[in-house]
Task: structure prediction
Amino acid sequence: MPVNYVTPEPESLFPVAGIRLGVAEANIRKAGRKDLTLIEIAPGATVAGVFTQNRFCAAPVQVCRERLSHHPDGIRALVINTGNANAGTGEAGLQAALKSCVATGELLGTSADAVLPFSTGVIHELLPVERLIAGLPAARANLAENNWFAAAHAIMTTDTVAKAASKQCSVAGKTLTVTGISKGAGMIRPNMATMLGFIATDAAIAPALLAPLVKEVADQSFNCVTVDGDTSTNDSFILMASGKGALSFVSGEEPGWMDTKAALMEVALQLAQAIVRDGEGASKFITIAVEGGNTREECRKVAYAVAHSPLVKTAFFASDPNLGRILAAIGYAGIDDLSVEGVKVWLEAAGESVLVSERGGRATAYREADGSRLMQSAEITVRIHLGRGEAAATVYTCDLSHDYVSINADYRS
Amino acid sequence: MPVNYVTPEPESLFPVAGIRLGVAEANIRKAGRKDLTLIEIAPGATVAGVFTQNRFCAAPVQVCRERLSHHPDGIRALVINTGNANAGTGEAGLQAALKSCVATGELLGTSADAVLPFSTGVIHELLPVERLIAGLPAARANLAENNWFAAAHAIMTTDTVAKAASKQCSVAGKTLTVTGISKGAGMIRPNMATMLGFIATDAAIAPALLAPLVKEVADQSFNCVTVDGDTSTNDSFILMASGKGALSFVSGEEPGWMDTKAALMEVALQLAQAIVRDGEGASKFITIAVEGGNTREECRKVAYAVAHSPLVKTAFFASDPNLGRILAAIGYAGIDDLSVEGVKVWLEAAGESVLVSERGGRATAYREADGSRLMQSAEITVRIHLGRGEAAATVYTCDLSHDYVSINADYRS
Result:
């Protein structure tokens, strides 16, 4: 059960003009479930993406990187399978990814270069690309602008709920539409990207604006979440601007650009947080907010050290205010000249804020009963002030429960 | 149940002339168990230590560092409590540690400066130092050279077995004795030291030799193990050279120095591995041997990335050869220019070695049945060749099981 997250109703996901989605069963891993998604992008749209920094990146990630660097405004389709990550598959995996693009291009009447492939699922097993190709006609027949809900379901792996977010608002007097989907629950510690995230807007956004924008959005959303610290081989986040709406941006100085960015950021953050809320075995949604650092990078180091500590995560699972474990994680985060005398730690939940630690020790006014009460909440913030500077960073994570072990011990069975 | 480890019999732990140990019940955390250990060191002995790099290091660690830097040949006693780590306790914690040294010094007729304090247990709670002091006379009354077995038990926290190792051998025609104890099962990712490790030898070793030696021994033993990646606030490893035996080293050029180092290393590695074998919830003992790197440091990065991955650890728990997770961890270990085409991965157990992965994908001859069979073993080596250079590093770890979550969710209850 995700922590305070339910999939939005199908009718609350606004179609994005110029973007059609279709799903099908290709029997890639398990029979009887939709595991193939096709996204068709109208001519004139721009597309940008960011991808995993894992050196064992998947074959489709290699293909995406290559194509986007050469044809940012020539992408006409995305083809996405679950059940197999096509990662750690060497040259044969690369050929399989390329084949899927050729088949998709032939079906849609476009070149293979205009197709981006995405895979997610088990690593180190060859993609059954013939089954994928056999499923493409059904996915094409299913193409529709109001199919985001179905696509959100078809890209799931160990996710317990489909993840989608959508927003329609008035920007500079015109209507802006932003809709996106994401998937992921384990092997989640995105590094410049996430498992899979796809967001589309009907605004027109020039390639020179879209490329830095996708990085900026990822850095503030998908790159701020972690479930288990395992950076995936397949992380991919794609932003599509169909240009079929009323807004158009070339220089970023047009009216409405900041509001448009904010709308995209909002949808991306909802999708990123949904991944943590549905983190494998998660029973708590935890925000680690680090302030008072010299640089954002050192704040992120501290936030991730706390977010990744199995001892901190099991204490949250147990609702046990064993908060010394947080101090230990701050202490080994890698800030060599950190003065612990300046560090303060608060526990916050349900509108309440309790100072837990200061001057290297337990805060005088702190009472264990307060810690115990706040630790019961399903949504908890650990606020850490490093007492060194003005920089800040926030990371979202979940607890470590028996279910995480069960899910990952049994993943392939 | 530890993996292939049983505490040695009391009579197999050789006394070290000049080192007496005593234990007592001080009721520091739980009643009815020995939680206080006193080690008395004869005049003329030399002592050196290495300690945690955690910035939130415990009060006793701060005291030890200070004293050893000023009086390496003036240390006459160690006072060790379990049940409370005296870490994250600020100025009050420091005063408590100092008080315990004053009381120990008075009891043994030595100065407080000659006493090193050690604490292990729960973090962020004040040490009940009056109870510790009240327990000292009983510990003193218990002092004996053949008390290593009792001391190994008295320093335990979540350990399920006491950890000790001992060796007597002939070096340069003379008898050398080395005996040591260690504790630790969780919050284990030593950084320049371990939870608690104490090794004594009857050789005489000059302070100028002992200080670099303790670092070298730690780097090849305690600094190569990890259970959960959490570097403790209290890691301490102490080497005592009583000088009551037949061997004496001043320059390191005397006959027998290399053999003496080897004997100390052997005992340290046994103690360090015992910590992993008794790792919280451990059901498997896993060696990550990385070769073919450009530097030892990059080999260690890869080894620790694999050793810390919750996905790799749960796969070992499940005996599931989901080995793509190992590739993913190698890929995100932080070697930016790693070419995956050159990486090879073997699984080794019970004298069998199976090539799993090469050229970025699954090895042609690899069969899942082989992986499944080897994954059943209680002792498994993952051998990784990076194909870049001549450096190597080995790290020892364990799997991640339901019991790890249970132990740490319930630690304080």
In short: The two ends of chain B are 21 Å apart (CA to CA). The mean pLDDT of chain B is 91.
